[in-house]
């Protein structure tokens, strides 16, 4: 069973009198252990699609199934619980909290869960992304590539089924981008998760198990 | 255990503390408003208490006294010995001290002079406390003199003072600052015999247990001596004065003053809350993307709300604590000056304003934080992340 499945998803934005159809009848699914890369021109709806997959936004029409469960009509609070337990996010500009150390940033998503101590897992994840010697560094003491690794570790702290990455290499140079992609590929297998990423980066396509091309809100 | 370690167990507190630490200057400025608000509330409240205590202690012994002088419609000048006996009959179980008054000038050996009021009476100990020597139960010989006057003139216990052509030895020095009596002038207390050429007493002082007893006795005496005539007017044989009205006036004035001071304090706290509202709103708008990330990774709305409210509460607590400490110093100084005892500030009567100030500070801050917190918590993460 697909870990995430979108069926006939339509997303319309109302701006003034105009209606923008950002996604038109999109079908999308991803499996565990698979890296799917979404490509397409600017404004084609890539981020919009990724937000649907990540349960950050709800479709105007269509259906979303997470692990076979229909989550289309979930309330914001129910969606938050799903994101908390099933999904990890990596953003283009890292979005780490500047006042927290690398370890604390990784623990952040589980911070309010006082019942479980994810400290050991946070440290372990940081070791696995090669930051074992940077545990107590703050984001401003880390390079771009190192920050993105912290972000990846953070995305995995809750043992998600899906990791979503919107242009994870967008702010990195070629070499650093490549190491990040190798990292993601390795983690995908280790953790048996689905990785869905959006990119403009040609080299990223080489790491993908599957490429989805989006043009004008339609999958080609 | 460090504060951060302790906070680690309370995620909202932990995050709030870190967030405040990010922009210390802004945090300090935001709580400065609260500091000023708390100082206004606490120190104005304490000032009210200090002024009231001072006024009451100045009035001091007077509140339990009743003073009798000759009435408007009296046929005699002064209070007669018969009238004193009658007063003693009506007001039993209290000290009734008839007295003569006069004025004189006493001079020191080196020729320095002081004007003093002269009081001729017998039961000196009822009305006068001494700082040196004695205040006799029956003053038959010798005199008492106000200690500040004695100091000025270099007169000591046992020194002679001349009054009305007679020499008296100083037996005791009266504590200065006993009530407003004497109008700042020194007092010379002499035996009744020194003024025995007078026909009648000038006044009678009655000393009772407390203010209520004084009021009661004053009323009984007025009833007794000042009969209503057939045409509805009062025939005032004796003028009877008690100080309960004065005390009441002072109390009601003080309550008004205290309310006014608290009003001023509250206004400054309102201003401080607006400052907090502004700062919290700015900082949540600035951190919009960050809060979006928190929401995206599964932090619940309630948790974001609590985090930001805790931030506001911390601002209030920081400001409140600083304000309380500064107010405490002000209070100590005030009571030192006004009441002579700085420690009075720790009595609940005045200490409660420190507590009120602190609670108000936290309350006002949390209320100010409500809207920014609610706004941040309910911002849709997609929109927040888009920026
Ligand atoms: N909140 C919104 N309100 C109105 N229109 C929107 C909104 N979000 C996206 N759109 C529109 O939907 C379309 C798809 O936007 P989207 O951000 O998904 O593109 P993208 O493929 O991610 O582009 P890029 O590569 O530049 O990031 C665009 O035309 C955009 O203007
Ligand atoms: Mg995009």
From TrEMBL, chain A:
It comes from the Archaea. GO terms for cellular component: plasma membrane. PROSITE patterns: ABC_TRANSPORTER_1 (PS00211), ABC_TRANSPORTER_2 (PS50893). GO terms for molecular function: ATP binding; ATP hydrolysis activity; transmembrane transporter activity. Residues 4-220 form the ABC transporter domain. Keywords: ATP-binding, Nucleotide-binding, Transport. It holds the Pfam family ABC_tran. InterPro entries: AAA+_ATPase, ABC_transporter-like_ATP-bd, ABC_transporter-like_CS, ABC_transpr_LolD-like, MacB-like_ATP-bd, P-loop_NTPase. PANTHER family: ABC TRANSPORTER ABCH.1, IMPORT ATP-BINDING PROTEIN. This is Putative ABC transport system ATP-binding protein. It comes from Natrinema hispanicum.
UniProtKB/TrEMBL annotation, chain B:
Residues 264-378 form the ABC3 transporter permease C-terminal domain. The keyword Cell membrane applies. Residues 27-222 form the MacB-like periplasmic core domain. The keyword Zinc does not apply. The chain crosses the membrane at residues 28-51, 259-283, 304-333, 353-374. It is found in: Cell membrane. GO terms for molecular function: transmembrane transporter activity. It is a multi-pass membrane protein. One of its GO terms (cellular component) is plasma membrane. PANTHER family: ABC TRANSPORTER PERMEASE YTRF, MEMBRANE COMPONENT OF TRANSPORTER-RELATED. Belongs to the ABC-4 integral membrane protein family. This is Putative ABC transport system permease protein. It comes from Natrinema hispanicum.
